[in-house]
Amino acid sequence: MTVNFPPGFLWGTATAAYQVEGAPHAAGRTPSIWDTFSHTPGRTLGGDTGDTATDHYHRRRDDVRLMADLGLGAYRFSVSWPRVQPSGRGHANQPGLDFYRALVDDLLEHGIRPVLTLYHWDLPQELETAGGWPERGTAHRFADYAHLVAEALGDRVDMWTTLNEPWCSAFLGYGSGVHAPGRTDDLAALRAAHHLNLAHGLGAQALRAALPSHGQVSVTLNPGVVRAFTDAPADLDAQRRIDALATRIFTGPMLHGSYPDDLLADTAGITDWAFVHDGDPGVIKHPLDSLGINYYTPTVVAAATDNGLPGEAPEPSPWPGAAGVAFHRPPGKRTAMDWSVDPTGLYDLLVRFTEEVPGLPLVVTENGAAYDDKPDGDGTVHDPERIAYLHAHLDAVRRAIADGADVRGYFLWSLLDNFEWAYGYSKRFGAVHVDYATQTRTLKSSARWYSQVARTGQLPLY
């Protein structure tokens, strides 16, 4: 017995440029902040870098054929900013753009819809040296970059995403420092969040100006599923604080045209938000054709107490203005990332945004899990845990659709095992196993399972 997804539902997988491409110096590419960060001793597990990654830059044709063999309808990829605009300003680097032209042509030739993300965390190092996302000028540089990529690819790509997970860029990059560029400054993190919001708005305007009328503009967020440890007022207030920092700092201006009052009050000891200029909220609140939602695991919080609740946020923290909040380990099964498996969080997000912004289509742009996948003696890679994870989360999507959510597609993270940021090559999210020594690709059992779902639009019942 099976249950059906709506006709036209988009089934795809996703990757990010720095995690898969490699070829860091090819065709005029210059360093991004992730090149600098990963080459700094102690920043990544084992000193791993994305210099080779999965060598997608040289193996793109094979990877596209792999997607086609799996029957996927769409591929969500990101453009490497320093590959197409090496200094982060000025004219386009045509040899760098040629890679993406060829990738898009390959996808279209195989009937796969290209879904392009402009920014997945690889800021050109020159722009970081000039101040990075805490500086307003970076938002304007992003708009210029968006326009030149749209001019090059807008005739063949109709789904565009400005930013991927700006929360990570701002708060892991400039708050806790566990992501590039590795800075630890609460004020810089809040400034970065605003200028990422502004970059989204300015970038969306630039896309509209350059794209054909049928071009679709979106943004991908990783909104928090924040749950209170108890229903005590102090724990509920902790939940409110973290929801403001995890989600509403972006959805407030992007979807509603203003920052939440409680966020401004919570962070008043850090900044007066004078970096928000008149007119900025109106630019940021650009009409969207869809909203991308990434989801992996929920967050459980409580008010910190003198007896030291377990799991309190480390210092430096990605949560400016939330020193009185303690973080608890959510219950349930765990992935290799030690993240709890809880598909109800994805359902809750889809229902939340359906109610918050009626009429705005939603796309699950990332969802997946890392497990310790190893080939068997015969070379096969069985990953039943990932199949169970995907089944449960796709069922959550199905239930949300049944309850009125307008969900248009689902993108599995990720197509390939790849460079997992600060974790290096230690965590495997791919539906396709990669032997990093030989770059051999091997379909895991989850890839075959997902292929059947994508081909039929049907989710088999357990």
From TrEMBL:
Domain of life: Bacteria
Alphabetized UniProt keyword annotations: Carbohydrate metabolism, Cellulose degradation, Glycosidase, Hydrolase, Polysaccharide degradation
PROSITE patterns, alphabetized: GLYCOSYL_HYDROL_F1_1, GLYCOSYL_HYDROL_F1_2
Species of provenance: Streptomyces roseoverticillatus
PANTHER family xrefs: GLYCOSYL HYDROLASE (PTHR10353), LP05116P (PTHR10353:SF36)
Family: Belongs to the glycosyl hydrolase 1 family.
SUPFAM superfamilies per record: (Trans)glycosidases
Official protein name in the record: Beta-glucosidase
Gene Ontology MF terms: beta-glucosidase activity
Keyword Cytoplasm included in the entry's annotation: no
Enzyme Commission designation: 3.2.1.21
